[in-house]
Amino acid sequence: xxxxxxxxxxxxxxxxxxxxxxxxxxxxxxxxxxxxxxxxxxxxxxxxxxxxxxxxxxxxxxxxxxxxxxxxxxxxxxxxxxxxxxxxxxxxxxxxxxxxxxxxxxxxxxxxxxxxxxxxxxxxxxxxxxxxxxxxxxxxxxxxxxxxxxxxxxxxxxxxxxxxxxxxxxxxxxxxxxxxxxxxxxxxxxxxxxxxxxxxxxxxxxxxxxxxxxxxxxxxxxxxxxxxxxxxxxxxxxxxxxxxxxxxxxxxxxxxxxxxxxxxxxxxxxxxxxxxxxxxxxxxxxxxxxxxxxxxxxxxxxxxxxxxxxxxxxxxxxxxxxxxxxxxxxxxxxxxxxxxxxxxxxxxxxxxxxxxxxxxxxxxxxxxxxxxxxxx
Amino acid sequence: xxxxxxxxxxxxxxxxxxxxxxxxxxxxxxxxxxxxxxxxxxxxxxxxxxxxxxxxxxxxxxxxxxxxxxxxxxxxxxxxxxxxxxxxxxxxxxxxxxxxxxxxxxxxxxxxxxxxxxxxxxxxxxxxxxxxxxxxxxxxxxxxxxxxxxxxxxxxxxxxxxxxxxxxxxxxxxxxxxxxxxxxxxxxxxxxxxxxxxxxxxxxxxxxxxxxxxxxxxxxxxxxxxxxxxxxxxxxxxxxxxxxxxxxxxxxxxxxxxxxxxxxxxxxxxxxxxxxxxxxxxxxxxxxxxxxxxxxxxxxxxxxxxxxxxxxxxxxxxxxxxxxxxxxxxxxxxxxxxxxxxxxxxxxxxxxxxxxxxxxxxxxxxxxxxxxxxxx
Lengths: 376, 376
Hints:
The structure is a homodimer.
Chain A: E1 6-8, E2 15-17, H1 21-34, H2 36-64, H3 74-98, H4 110-119, H5 124-143, H6 146-153, H7 156-167, H8 174-194, H9 208-234, H10 240-266, H11 279-301, H12 304-326, H13 332-349, H14 361-375
Antiparallel strand pairs in A: 1-2
Main location (chains A, B): membrane
GO molecular function, one term (chains A, B): pyrimidine nucleotide-sugar transmembrane transporter activity
Organism (chains A, B): Helianthus annuus
């Protein structure tokens, strides 16, 4: 129906030029600069919520294990999480539709749905990557200890930044790249301090195969997050609940296909998705679903980097909490690491470190000229 | 002769309003912004020279010890260092005077000398503080191990910045304060990695008296450096060799008085200033003299902060050199520490982190207006 460069408007059905990544990022930036206060309040809310959910997760994972192992299929947890998110998105969509003003086009009409589904087909990409990643995550937690998993996860910070630059055409100032490097250093210091000494005790993989595995483990979720941010922002006018519905719908489908594959390989007994589940695993599923929903808000209204900082702050709080609860002493490394993380955070979000319009420096001058004239 | 607020011009002998700290700093800033390229080349030269001298010092100190002790009076090293610096300043002054153009007022005339001496009387303050500090330094090296001395010295970074703000009215941006904190963290990490484990092995003082001692040990040299910078820059037109002559002259006098005091207390045998000296101590004296001379160039043409960064880079090179020579492994902490130091250095000197003229934001606009007009 539409040419590759054209796209149909979901409201007036007119053919439009398909937005490029540059226009996606610009349009979003314009939105941002219009609502700085509302934006900041939302960011704080997102970070606080995320900290609570991320902080709870290791406890729930621990509680879900029976004799140090998971007695249920990891795929089933993922499928149930997707289903929980789909249910949440549906409920929110119904609430939003009820509160619509009389003049507006109904959110629940079939034509809106079909049009939005077509426009948001790109969400299948992050959904697939997430499905792969969720499976990898469980595998990693079985083969490496949680500290090592967290340690390797740190590298995501820089990988995400590089992907944002490539896919979203986002530009970071030198100070911001330095801030991200400082974040990586700060998190690593925090973790070195909490790990037993010696490289052997850290359980770090040394074989070549393990490096490839690590590379995949770091790149897949980073790619998923950045693609998700891209897909959500490129259809900025579609309701986030509708977008979530597609994302989680695709997610549920991919996870279901994964389970079907397992059935083919391992036989039909692994088809019982409720096998081995307990109250703790249900809580884990709700926690996972909550984190997933929050993520989409991060990606659409803030960005992947803020999500990373949020997780780091959560880790720091977990560190303080475990020190308070279990009487661990806070090492010099941990304190130095925290200082670095907070300096990094301030530098990354400081207006001082904003990218200057170097390529078209005239633009800046133009805007000052305007101010100049308006002052006259 | 002159009132407290007035000062006599050294060339035309007219009475002038004494420059305030604000005008000192402004006048210097103007000089800096006029010659950015020449300035940068000089800075690089200063840092390279300083790195070499600072790197050599621990080796010479080690070589100067006999059975782990100094067999000579520390005061005599200081006095001889001051004498070496006076000789150097005199030689350079003679060379400068020979290269003067016929029209210029002779650098060697008595009137120039007396006038300059009167204007630069403030140099006696840093000279006294240095004399005290040099004595403290030797004492510290005897009672604490060198690693602890270096560790405590790190605090100077922030003390110097605070003193520069108070005395020189220098303004640092938030990014620059953060960069200085990062420098402190980076150096500390480097040193934690090279120290034996446990607080006892670090030989850190724990008694209250030791804290006071540490406070003095950190504040005296910081105060000396900042006062030196102030005194040298406030008489920017006086030849640096003439200023050095006064500074080191005062230094020699204070050190001589110190020796006299020792003679009174300990008896005349300690008056033999060459007692216990060897070729190694002579090299140490030349190295000390070289560092002192370089410092005055740092203070007059760059600043105390650049001197601190320079010393840190020297320490890093020493770390690499000792790793290469003695086969030490470089720890993760050391590598993370170095990364932080270099990020800090870039951030501190980055034009992005320059202090904005926040108080009179109109100024910025004014300057753009000018550009604007010149473009029309």
